[in-house]
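Give me the fold.
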Amino acid sequence: MLKTGEIFSWMEAFQQEGLITHYGASVETIEDALVCCQSNSLATLQIIFNIFRQDAVEKLLPIAEQKNIGIIARLPLASGLLSGRMQKIVLFQLRITVTTTVTAPHLMLVKPSMVCHLNLVLI
């Protein structure tokens, strides 16, 4: 629906009927954001933008400015990584689920998931 532009046709029809005044989109990738920018009536665009994800600066922001599309930065603190609460040594817990498959002649058995717990220390 996004890449075909069908959703934008619906939103523009809602605008013409007076059901909405403005609309925006929230996307994961710059490619999807560029597709959204093809709409003539998109008001805002929410994108992941922080010190680690800067690809919008060259690829998207000039187009958004030209088309007068407001940008809303999503995850500006990188899910807390840039919040200042992280210390030099941080303990993370990671849960990994592993499914193993055992093959036998003419028979395939799938064992129930095995759960492993790992502690990672970043220094």
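The chain has a mean pLDDT of 78.
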